[in-house]
Write a structure and sequence with these properties.
The chain is mainly α and 105 residues long. It has one domain. It is 88% helix and 0% strand. The protein is built from four helices and no strands. It is elongated and about 60 Å long. The two termini are 13 Å apart.
Length: 105
């Protein structure tokens, strides 16, 4: 039972994170500006006359930074949700776990 519950909660959180991320990406003006800057900088980067081996190192470095930052953001989101749930439970707002899980399914 606990395994199924964990899977349901995990899937629900993953869906919520994806939806939240999409809303943020679509609405935040700073992210929109960064996206425009990235297009411009990628064009400049692609036009550089650098050897393939150096380009691969730079590409791998950028991919590693992006992967780390995305994982950190996801883990922070989940940790924040856990903190919010604990806070609500300590306040007595969430005292019937069965009801919460029924809504998650």
């Amino acid at each position: 039972m606990e395994n199924k519950t964990e899977i349901v909660i995990s899937n629900y959180i993953e869906t919520m994170m994806k939806e939240r991320r999409q809303r943020i990406l679509a609405s935040d003006e700073y992210i929109q500006q960064d996206n425009g800057d990235l297009v411009y900088l990628e064009e400049r980067y692609n036009s550089l006359n650098i050897p393939h081996t150096i380009r691969r190192v730079i590409d791998d470095y950028i991919a590693c930074l992006e992967s780390r930052d995305e994982r950190y953001a996801d883990m922070s989101y989940v940790a924040g949700m856990g903190d919010a749930i604990k806070m609500l439970m300590n306040m007595g707002v969430l005292n019937n776990q069965g009801q919460c899980l029924a809504h998650a399914e």
